[in-house]
Amino acid sequence: MHLIMIRHGQSYVNLPDWKGEEDASLTPLGQQQAEALAGWLARQVRPVAIYTSAMRRALETTERVATALALPFTPDDRLREIGNAWPDATPIDFTRDRLEWAGHWASERPFTPVYQGGETWGDFITRVGRSLYEIADRHDGHADIVLVICHGGVINAAVDIAFNIGPWRSTDLWLRNTSLTHLEYKPPEMRQEMWRLHGINLCYHLIQPDGAMLGYEAWHWPTP
């Protein structure tokens, strides 16, 4: 199974001065990125299924992709971003539950809750892993392509699982909005490593004629 994990388009929560709710929608730029993603996927990829985080920014990205591919999608609360679920993986309702952030990023203290009574980084990796392995079991055909549209933290957790990193991580995969991370799952009986990494932060669909990416400045290699 080829697992294509996609970060959502730019959301209001990604803006440095955002003070609103955690489950925010896409910005106008994020909508453009999602449309560019959807068009590129429709031309280049033939997935058999789409799974998505149930958070608004992921769902809004997924709706555009699903329409372009003429495929249904399956929301899964276990694919929500870190800190947006309780330890049992049920979603936090931030309109009702007023929680105080613990003051540290989750992986700095992997067994300390992000919010009072909330999940830890260890809880987060567990819920993401359960979702991904259920998807792998469901799509055990070697050639199946499956899309998972989610969040940067979820993709970081998935790569940690694939590389057996565990909770003590020291590197953040800095993922662009709507970037693709391509993992391949190979059943253990194939006598090879279970996971194969093909690419991280793939942004073909965002490249503009001037070399810039939609929403990002043009890349220039540093000069000596």
Please, could you describe this protein's structure?
Helix content is 27%, strand content 15%. The mean pLDDT is 90. The protein has helices spanning 28-44, 56-69, 121-138, 152-162; strands at 2-7, 49-53, 74-76, 145-150, 180-185, 195-202. The longest helix is centred in the middle third of the chain and has 18 residues, at 121-138. Helix 2 links the parallel strand 2 and strand 3 (74-76). The protein has a six-stranded mixed sheet, with helices on both faces. It contains four helices and six strands. Helix 1 runs parallel beside helix 2. The protein has 224 residues and is an alpha/beta fold. The protein has a single domain, classed as Phosphoglycerate mutase-like (Rossmann fold, 3-Layer(aba) Sandwich), CATH 3.40.50.1240.
The main β sheet shows up as: 6 strands, mixed
Low-confidence parts: none
Look at the structure and give the mean pLDDT. Answer: 90
Number of helices: 4
Strand sequence of the main sheet, in spatial order?
3-2-4-1-5-6
Q: What is the global morphology?
A: globular
Distance between the termini: 42 Å
The fraction of residues assigned to DSSP E strands is 15-25%
CATH structural fold name: Rossmann fold
What's the β-strand tally? Answer: 6
**Order of helices and strands, N to C?**
EHEHEHEHEE
CATH superfamily: Phosphoglycerate mutase-like
Based on secondary structure, the structural category is alpha/beta
Supply the CATH class. Answer: Alpha Beta
Helix proportion range: 25-40%
